[in-house]
Amino acid sequence: MAKIKITQIKSVIDRSERQKKTIQALGLRKINHSVEVEANAAIIGMVRKVNHLVAVENI
């Protein structure tokens, strides 16, 4: 599987609880924090739900 780098670019303040938990589940903690994860169906689905809060790069 390919890896992707996910970076949080916007705050989760004033977002729904579901979006906050999704960001947490991706392993992101604060703005400009990045994680590298395997690009599986679950991760891609989570990224799509919060795509306005994160930036994604293929590795």
TrEMBL record:
CDD domains from the UniProt entry: Ribosomal_L30
Keyword Ribonucleoprotein among UniProt keywords: yes
Gene Ontology cellular component terms for the protein in this record: cytosolic large ribosomal subunit
Gene3D superfamilies, sorted: Ribosomal protein L30, ferredoxin-like fold domain
Annotated Large ribosomal subunit protein uL30-like ferredoxin-like fold domain residues: 4-54
Keyword Ribonucleoprotein among UniProt keywords: yes
Matches recorded under InterPro entries: Ribo_uL30_ferredoxin-like_sf, Ribosomal_uL30_bac-type, Ribosomal_uL30_CS, Ribosomal_uL30_ferredoxin-like
Gene Ontology terms describing biological process: translation
Record keywords, A-Z: Ribonucleoprotein, Ribosomal protein
Domain of life: Bacteria
Quaternary organization: Part of the 50S ribosomal subunit.
Family to which the UniProt record says this protein belongs: Belongs to the universal ribosomal protein uL30 family.
Record-given protein name: Large ribosomal subunit protein uL30
Gene designation: rpmD
